[in-house]
Design goal:
mainly alpha; three-stranded antiparallel beta sheet; 15 helices; globular; disordered N terminus
């Protein structure tokens, strides 16, 4: 009975789901679940948690514990949503009792205030003012391309393969959601792509478009996720160095570029539905439930307008 309890308990269900994610090659999602479960088991003081221990009171106290230890609201929300996901799986499997509104007293939303776009003057400086340090020129070129690719996240940028680019169109699936994206390459991006393009061909392995990942591991190997995490840390550190050299006051990370594209597009009067589709968002209700998709030509026009505004900002405001 004890073995069955452990297998069907909260921790057992969590470990089984994490294994499934790893088998599907979804190492990033598995890593987040691992962190959430480890944090909660440490809080509970036991490595094996039953579904009976998941109560409104324990969740409320856990949320307070996370806040007291300085975790940001979005991190707290992520952990709580991971716990809720495992609980829901237990309910669906018939091994957990359904408790209405079990997570009502804890934060599971998204605090958009944490995600700050750069003011357009600083964004222009970050993307277009030439740094003196030669090793930061490549970092700036990557950031500039990510912006010109409709605020493409670094995860998608790093994993782009050469086969995704054909006849001036990028077609790929988002790493995070699997959402298919098509993106027309702007004229201003073509030279940048050629400079950063990976010239080493690969067979039977990912043939990456840019020389960020080595391409010496098969697509669903866990080593690819670890290599990507190292590349992301390196890129964020380089962005910070670039920001310091250019005397920017606002904090900069890989996500800043994406959020800045969306925010400046909004300032340009581009419809929120167009912004959502260009970003490849999967769960924006106003986009997914009743609005039709925009054509590639319309999305290209919106991207051109946004990129031209940022690139020409200083000239028009002096």
């Amino acid at each position: 009975m004890k073995r069955k309890s452990n297998k069907n308990g909260f921790t057992g269900c969590a470990k089984a789901y994490i294994r499934n994610l790893q088998e599907e090659g979804r190492y990033s999602t598995a890593h987040v679940y691992k962190n959430a479960i480890l944090s909660f088991t440490r809080f509970c003081g036991t490595p094996s948690i039953t579904f009976g221990q998941i109560t409104r009171d324990s969740l409320r106290r856990y949320g307070q514990h996370l806040h007291e230890h300085g975790l940001k609201p979005n991190t707290v929300s992520t952990y709580m949503r991971m716990l809720r996901s495992i609980y829901n799986r237990g309910v669906e499997a018939g091994v957990a009792r359904f408790i209405p509104r079990l997570f009502r007293d804890v934060y599971t939303g998204v605090d958009v205030r944490q995600k700050k776009a750069l003011p357009v003057s600083e964004l222009h400086t970050l993307l277009y003012k030439a740094p003196q340090s030669q090793h930061l020129i490549r970092t700036q070129a990557i950031a500039r391309l990510m912006f010109q690719f409709c605020g493409m996240p670094f995860s998608d940028f790093a994993h782009l393969e050469k086969s995704a680019l054909e006849d001036g169109i990028l077609r790929y699936n988002r790493i995070k959601t699997g959402t298919p994206i098509s993106l027309e390459i702007l004229d201003t991006s073509k030279k940048e792509i050629n400079k950063l393009r990976n010239s080493n061909p690969r067979e039977d392995y990912p043939d990456y478009l840019f020389n960020i990942m080595r391409g010496d591991k098969r697509r669903k190997e866990e080593g690819i996720y670890k290599e990507y995490q190292s590349a992301l840390r390196r890129f964020n550190n380089q962005l910070k160095s670039l920001s310091r050299e250019l005397n920017l006051k606002s904090p900069v990370s890989s996500y800043t570029i994406r959020h800045s594209w969306a925010t400046n597009a909004k300032y340009q009067g581009i419809p929120i539905e167009m912004i959502s589709e260009s970003l490849g968002h999967k769960s924006i209700k106003t986009t997914q439930t009743y609005l039709k998709g925009f054509g590639l030509k319309k999305r290209t026009e919106a991207n051109q307008l946004n990129c031209f505004y940022v690139e020409s900002y200083n000239a028009s405001h002096q």
